[in-house]
Each structure stands twice: as structure tokens, then as C-alpha cells.
Structure to design on (889 residues):
């Protein structure tokens, strides 16, 4: 039954992804012929949005070979170049995570997952290929992407969470339903993680991502372990960040950012509340399934001891119906969880990433601000030196002033850059969020429809049996 | 029919019909016997509960009688009775030796609003901590729950009276007539501690005795079969009743979750800045509506399945009690026979022994005869009641599933049309 559930889950996620792909395809062609929505956020960062229509020539533009890119260079590519490529390529890439396999024994054991990529994008050497990856590889990928892109304002999708308890059970070799459930949950989460990451046009270009998808051998990412040196350093940094956040008092010149931050705060709270309710529903549905199964058995026993033949038969039929309904409840609980609940928890973590990006902007501002203050100090020093008439010190002061003027300019550029990037990213994120929620919720409602249709079938079959009691 | 509520917190007056109340008796049984169809007996005595009032810690039932029998002063009249008076009537039947050969209709369970009252109290205390909509929603939910329990307890008291009124012997009982007609308080107090303790010991003795008596093999095949059957049936009904209860309760919990999900979606819908807010509001509406249906499913399962099983748990116990009484009288008869033989052998107190043996014989035969009929009727009643309830259960489940399906499909059509 678990294998069926697995197949069901991967089928469902494939279906969801196909639908997303299809709608993206539809949108991509629309986008290019009219005003590209991808462009608008950039334009609207200026006070007066001047919408310049995009000529269809971008569609005809050849797919740019991006193999020459290496990680730091990507920031120097103009935004327009990135846009062109994104619009020129239809997002024709499909990722599947499947076949979890236990490798090794005891505490050193780990689960290996097959990552299959199907694509027509030219940046990949083949159109279909698969590799074996373990969980820490995914974490390593995320860590690399985060270190490159988060601090310049890109919303990098967060990786699935670690679970020491869950993994220990699997390692120890408990072949029970809870560990299979855990592996399935993780597999689905890894798949969603990769799908979200490749959907991001900038991240898709990243060589680390390509290496992750393509190369058969991947260097072990040891720094992802929670208790490694790097892990502890991460924790220390996180704490320091938290303290800093409290002490930075930013003069927000742009109301858009303040508004957005508040919106995301609200959204976060609401999603958490909804998530808690959906988790309760999953729990109760599982309970209902168990109780229905127990009742079915009990009704069968009652039917056996009933000495009126027709009633006895009807009671046995009732027991059968209830057993089938129990199956229905189980499947529904499965849908409740994998479609609804996991969607919500993914977005709760995504919003945390969004908040992180806003925080980086604040830090960037702080850096700029600090540079300005230092420049002021250097100018004061220069003035003092001039009064005290120390020619060599004056030269030093002038040098320092030049140095800090450059830093101030750089700080301002960085700040503007990150602000622009965030605006674009948030626009993209909101669009994705709307699409995601709509698609998944509709899929979920369709699962509810199926349940009701099955219920009708079962009870319609039972009714004549009940009426036949003479 | 008007139900009135009066609790510490809410005073509600609702008009409700008992049309979807539990119905453990088949239609035929209300005043009619399944086998002996006697139309006249229907008009002769009709009893129902026309009104009920729930006060702080007691429920007052208005028992309404329509009768053409000469025993009553009027043709139509009503009195107000409380639960203890129903119990008094039931106990008077149990204690009456003349009725030993009948299945005594099981007493209705005590009205228990404690759980519901506690929830209402908690809601009242927590009023400040939730939004106005949430509070109104929860209040409605709890009121509906209270009403459901109320309707159930009224129905169960009514069923008891109807069973008595339908029974050709019990309906003539004097206590029953007093119960129906005497419009003053019967001054029947609940049992005090001493009496409750006495009852407890009586029950213990009875069950010990029951074990001894049941060891005696019955010559009569019919009764032997019935005994084995009832024993097993009673246990299985008990199990099924408990499991059915748990199932309906889980169903209700899931329905309550829909409520919370609907509220959260509503909040999301009103606060979101993108065009998804319309989407959320529609889905929130869907969850609110579907929740009402799910709650009805749970309530109907409770009514048609759980309550049916609970009732037949009590009735099968009453049937077992009848068999016990018969076995008891059989043992007494056999003992009397032995005593007579001994007396004849010793030639001492023979007449006394003879009379006592005669009495025991008469008692045993009388019980056996009526018991046989009662058990046959029990089976007929049971089959009819199960049939009715299972058919109604299936019909209601279908109705609700179709309703749900319609709701979901409509919502999906709107959502897909918008996107």
C-alpha cells in the first residue's frame, strides 16, 4: 500500500508540475507578445512607470550559451541580458526525485535519492539524465546558492528541514510505516525544493545547480552537518544577526518596503494559523480512518451473530462499505497532508527567506550609512590636519577620503541594486505564490470531489441491500 | 413542538419537529404489534412528548395522552414529568412479579448536558480572546450540539412510553395510568445513598445468581438457542455501539476543523494584497458550507447508527433479564419438585409442598409462554428497526454526499473560470 501511496504522490506532484509548466508555457508566449510582466517591476521601481512594449525579437533571439559563466561573474551581467534569456527560453525543465534507497548500515547509513531531469534547455548536455544524491547534497546546494545570492536580494528557496529523530529511525533500520512515511515526506519535499529552485530564472543559470543536476560525482558537503564547525559558526552568525536587527534603525525612504514587510509579517501569521488547522484536520482524519476500520470489524462480528439471515447479510455489507470508506479516509488524509499542509509549510519557510532578504537590505543600508559616517570623520580629520599644518598627514587624509568616497558610492550603488532586485524578486514571488496556491488548492478540492463521488458509489450499492431486509 | 432552553448563559426558544429524531421502533410498532395487527389498539392509547423544557439541572417533559379507554377521566390530557418519574415507573415494572414474563422496555438514560454545559461555559470565559466571527460561529456550533442532545433525550423518553403503551399487558398497568394522568407531582424522589447501595448489592447477587442459573441446561431448544444467541449478540452490540460512537465523534472533530480552516482562509482573503484574495474568500465560503454538511453527516450517523445500537444494547439486556427470570423460575420449580419428593418420602408437610410446587409450575409455565412470544416479537422489532435505520442512514449519506459534491463542483467551476 505504501508503494501505491508513493506512486500516487509522485503522480500528483508530477501532475501539479505539468500544470504549472503548461500554464507557464501559455504565459510565456503571452508575455512576449505584450508587455512583459517580468519587466514591469523593474520599470515600476521608478516613480513614473514608463511601460515600453517589448518587441517580439526577443523570442527569435538565440538561446545564449551560458557555459562560460562562473559564479561571481553572474552579478556583472546586466539585468536585461538575464531577462532576454528568461523570456527566450520557455521554462522547459522537469525535475523528479524518486527511488529512495538505503545505502550502508548502522549510524553511517543514508538514503540516496534519484534526481531525474528532463529538459530541452540547451545549457544542459543531454535532454534526460539522472543522478543519485543524498540529503546533505541538497543542503550543500542550498548553502552554496544562499551564500551567493541571498545577500544581493534574491529569494533563494529554502531546503527541507533536517530531522535527527526521523533519520535515526531510518538508519537503525526500523522498517515500519512511520519511517516509510518519513522517507516519502522527505522525498516529496526534496522534489518540491528542486522544482522551485529551477523555476527561478537566475538560479537556473547557476553552475552549482547544473553540477548538482548533471554530474555523477559530487563532493560531499560536510559543512551542512548541524554539529560541524561550520554549523556552529552558522549558529553564532544567526545569533549575531538577530542582535544586529534589533539595533539597526533604518530611515526608510521608500514606503513600498515598509508596506511589503508588514504584509509579509501578516501573511506569515495567517499561514501559520491555517497550517495548524490543516494539521489538526490531517490528524483527525487519520483517527476517523482508524475508528471506521474498527467499526467495520465490529459490524461484521455483529452480522455474524445476528440470526435473521437477511439482516445478517445487510450488516456484513455495511461492514464492507465501512471498510471501503476507511480506505477513502486514508487517501483523503494523504491528500490533506501532501497537497494542503505541505504547501503551507513550504510557504511559511519561503516567507522566512523573503524576510531574510529584507534584512540583508537593511544590513546593506547600514554599511552604506557607516561608510558615510566614516567619510565624514575622515573629512574632519583632513580639516584638523590642515589647521595643524602637517603636510604628510594631510596627504594621508586625502587618500583616505578618496578611498571612503569610493566606498560611499559603492555602498549607494549596492543599496540601490539590492532594492531593485528585491522589488523584482518580490513581484516574481507574489506571482508564483498566487499560481502555486491556486493550482494546489484546486487540485486539493478535486481530491475532495473524488472522495464524495466514491462515497456516493458505495452508499448507492448498499441501499438496495438494506432495503432487501425482509 | 417547542423546546425551551434555559441555561446560565443562554436562553433560547426553538421550534423543532421531531421528524428527524431517532426512531427505534418501526412504524408498525407504535401502537401496533407486528404480528397481531390490531388497529383499534392504536386509537385506544396514544402517548407522546409534546413539549420539553430544559432548566438549570433538570428537564421537564410534557407527556401528552390521547385515549378512548374508559380508565381515564378525559380523552386527551397532558402532565409534566421529570426523569426520576420515568425511572420510578420502570422500576415498578421490574419489581412486579406479574410482569416477570415480559421484556420490560429499557429505561431511558439520564439527560446529560454536563459536557455541553462545560463547553458553553468555557466559550463564555474565552469570549475576549477570539474575534467576533469566531465567537458567533462557536456559539452556534455549541447551541446546535445542545439542541441535538436535547432532542435525543426527549426521543428516548418518548420511545420508552410508546413501548409501554404498545404492550398489551403493560399498557393496562395502574402505575402507568397514574403516571399519565395524575397532574400533581408524583413525589418520587431519586434514590438516596442507602437505596443506591441496596440496588448495588441486589445487582451483584443477581449477576452471581445469573451465572449459577445459566449453568442449567434448558430442555427447550427454543430457549437454549435464544440464550446462546442473546449472550453473544449483546456483547457484539456493545462493541459495535462503542466503536460507532468513536467513529461519529472523529467525524465531528474533522468537521470542526473545517470550521477553523474556513475562518483562517477568510482572514487570508480579507488581508491579502494580490488577486488571490477573491480565491481565498470563495474557498473559505466552501469550507463553511461543506462543514455544515459534514456536521450533519456526523449527526445523522449518530442518530441512525450509534443510537440504534445503543438502544438494542439496552433491549438485548432486558431480553437477557427475561431469560434470567425464566431460568430462575425453572430452578425454583425444580427445587420445589425435589422438596415435594422429599416431603412425600418423609410424609411431612406434603400439602404445603404440593401447593408450592403447583405455584412454581404455574409461574414457570406462564413465564415460558409469554417469554416465547416476547422474544419472537423482539426479533421482529429488531429486524424492522435495523432495516428502517439502515435504509435511512444510506439515504441520508447519499443525500449529503451529493450535496457536498454539488458544492465542490460549483466552487471549482467558479475558481477555474476566474483563473
Amino acid at each position: 500500500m505504501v508503494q501505491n501511496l508513493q506512486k500516487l504522490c509522485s503522480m500528483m506532484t508530477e501532475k501539479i508540475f505539468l500544470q504549472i509548466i503548461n500554464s507557464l508555457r501559455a504565459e510565456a508566449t503571452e508575455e512576449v507578445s505584450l508587455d512583459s510582466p517580468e519587466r514591469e517591476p523593474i520599470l515600476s521601481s521608478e516613480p513614473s512607470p514608463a511601460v515600453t512594449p517589448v518587441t517580439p525579437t526577443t523570442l527569435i533571439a538565440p538561446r545564449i550559451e551560458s557555459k562560460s559563466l562562473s559564479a561571481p561573474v553572474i552579478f556583472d551581467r546586466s539585468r536585461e541580458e538575464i531577462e532576454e534569456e528568461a523570456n527566450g527560453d520557455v521554462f522547459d525543465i522537469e525535475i523528479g526525485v524518486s527511488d529512495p534507497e538505503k545505502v550502508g548500515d548502522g549510524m553511517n547509513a543514508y538514503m540516496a535519492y534519484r534526481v531525474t531531469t528532463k529538459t530541452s534547455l540547451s545549457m544542459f548536455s543531454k535532454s534526460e539524465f539522472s543522478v543519485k544524491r543524498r540529503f546533505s547534497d541538497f543542503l550543500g546546494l542550498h548553502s552554496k546558492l544562499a551564500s551567493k545570492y541571498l545577500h544581493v536580494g534574491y529569494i533563494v528557496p529554502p531546503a527541507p528541514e533536517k530531522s535527527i529523530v526521523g533519520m535515526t529511525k531510518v538508519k537503525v533500520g526500523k522498517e515500519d510505516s512511520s519511517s516509510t512515511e518519513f522517507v516519502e515526506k522527505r522525498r516529496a519535499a526534496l522534489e518540491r525544493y528542486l522544482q522551485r529552485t529551477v523555476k527561478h530564472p537566475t538560479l537556473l543559470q547557476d553552475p552549482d545547480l547544473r553540477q548538482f543536476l548533471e554530474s555523477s560525482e559530487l563532493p560531499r558537503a560536510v559543512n551542512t552537518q548541524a554539529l560541524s564547525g561550520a554549523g556552529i559558526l552558522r549558529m553564532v552568525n544567526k545569533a549575531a544577526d538577530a542582535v544586529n536587527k534589533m539595533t539597526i534603525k533604518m530611515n526608510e525612504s521608500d514606503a513600498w518596503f515598509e508596506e511589503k514587510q508588514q504584509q509579509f509579517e501578516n501573511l506569515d501569521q495567517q499561514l501559520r494559523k491555517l497550517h495548524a488547522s490543516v494539521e489538526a484536520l490531517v490528524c483527525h482524519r487519520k483517527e476517523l480512518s482508524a475508528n471506521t476500520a474498527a467499526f467495520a470489524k465490529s459490524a461484521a462480528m455483529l452480522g455474524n451473530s445476528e440470526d435473521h439471515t437477511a439482516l445478517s447479510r445487510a450488516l456484513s455489507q455495511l461492514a464492507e462499505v465501512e471498510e471501503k470508506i476507511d480506505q477513502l479516509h486514508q487517501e483523503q488524509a494523504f491528500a490533506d497532508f501532501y497537497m494542503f499542509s505541505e504547501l503551507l509549510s513550504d510557504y511559511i519557510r519561503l516567507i522566512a527567506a523573503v524576510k531574510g532578504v529584507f534584512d540583508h537590505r537593511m544590513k546593506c543600508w547600514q554599511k552604506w550609512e557607516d561608510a558615510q559616517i566614516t567619510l565624514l570623520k575622515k573629512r574632519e580629520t583632513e580639516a584638523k590636519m590642515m589647521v595643524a599644518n602637517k603636510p604628510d598627514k594631510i596627504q594621508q587624509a586625502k587618500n583616505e577620503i578618496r578611498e571612503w568616497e569610493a566606498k560611499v558610492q559603492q555602498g549607494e550603488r549596492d543599496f540601490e541594486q539590492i532594492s531593485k532586485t528585491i522589488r523584482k524578486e518580490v513581484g516574481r514571488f507574489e506571482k508564483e505564490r498566487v499560481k502555486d496556491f491556486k493550482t494546489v488548492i484546486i487540485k486539493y478540492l478535486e481530491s475532495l470531489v473524488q472522495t464524495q463521488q466514491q462515497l456516493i458509489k458505495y452508499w448507492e450499492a448498499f441501499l438496495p441491500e438494506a432495503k432487501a431486509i425482509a | 413542538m417547542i423546546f425551551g432552553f434555559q441555561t446560565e448563559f443562554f436562553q433560547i426558544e426553538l421550534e423543532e419537529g421531531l421528524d428527524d429524531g431517532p426512531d427505534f421502533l418501526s412504524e408498525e410498532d407504535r401502537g401496533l404489534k407486528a404480528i397481531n395487527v390490531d388497529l383499534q389498539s392504536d386509537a385506544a392509547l396514544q402517548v407522546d412528548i409534546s413539549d420539553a423544557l430544559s432548566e438549570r439541572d433538570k428537564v421537564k417533559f410534557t407527556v401528552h395522552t390521547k385515549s378512548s379507554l374508559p380508565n381515564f377521566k378525559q380523552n386527551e390530557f397532558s402532565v409534566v414529568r421529570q426523569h426520576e418519574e420515568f425511572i420510578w415507573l420502570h422500576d415498578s415494572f421490574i419489581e412486579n412479579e406479574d410482569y416477570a414474563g415480559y421484556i420490560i422496555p429499557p429505561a431511558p438514560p439520564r439527560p446529560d448536558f454536563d459536557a455541553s454545559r462545560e463547553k458553553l461555559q468555557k466559550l463564555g470565559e474565552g469570549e475576549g480572546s477570539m474575534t467576533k466571527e469566531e465567537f458567533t460561529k462557536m456559539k452556534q456550533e455549541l447551541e446546535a450540539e445542545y439542541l441535538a442532545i436535547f432532542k435525543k433525550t426527549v426521543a428516548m423518553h418518548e420511545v420508552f412510553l410508546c413501548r409501554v403503551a404498545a404492550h398489551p399487558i403493560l399498557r393496562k398497568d395502574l402505575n402507568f395510568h397514574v403516571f399519565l394522568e395524575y397532574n400533581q407531582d408524583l413525589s418520587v424522589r431519586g434514590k438516596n445513598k442507602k437505596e443506591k447501595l441496596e440496588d448495588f448489592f441486589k445487582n451483584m447477587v443477581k449477576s452471581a445468581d445469573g451465572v449459577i442459573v445459566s449453568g442449567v441446561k434448558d430442555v427447550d431448544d427454543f430457549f437454549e438457542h435464544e440464550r446462546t444467541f442473546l449472550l453473544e449478540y449483546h456483547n457484539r452490540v456493545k462493541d459495535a455501539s462503542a466503536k460507532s460512537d468513536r467513529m461519529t465523534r472523529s467525524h465531528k472533530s474533522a468537521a470542526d476543523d473545517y470550521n477553523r480552516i474556513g475562518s483562517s482562509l477568510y482572514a487570508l482573503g480579507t488581508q491579502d494584497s494580490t488577486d488571490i484574495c477573491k480565491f481565498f474568500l470563495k474557498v473559505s465560503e466552501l469550507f463553511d458550507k461543506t462543514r455544515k454538511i459534514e456536521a450533519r453527516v456526523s449527526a445523522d450517523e449518530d442518530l441512525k447508527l450509534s443510537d440504534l445500537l445503543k438502544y438494542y444494547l439496552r433491549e438485548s439486556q432486558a431480553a437477557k433479564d427475561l431469560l434470567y427470570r425464566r431460568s430462575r423460575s425453572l430452578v425454583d420449580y425444580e427445587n420445589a419438585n425435589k422438596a415435594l419428593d422429599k416431603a412425600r418420602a418423609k410424609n411431612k408437610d406434603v400439602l404445603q409442598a404440593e401447593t408450592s410446587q403447583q405455584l412454581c409450575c404455574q409461574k414457570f409455565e406462564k413465564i415460558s409462554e409469554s417469554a416465547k412470544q416476547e422474544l419472537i416479537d423482539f426479533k421482529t422489532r429488531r429486524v424492522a428497526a435495523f432495516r428502517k435505520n439502515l435504509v435511512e442512514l444510506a439515504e441520508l449519506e447519499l443525500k449529503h454526499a451529493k450535496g457536498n459534491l454539488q458544492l465542490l463542483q460549483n466552487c471549482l467551476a467558479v475558481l477555474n473560470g476566474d483563473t
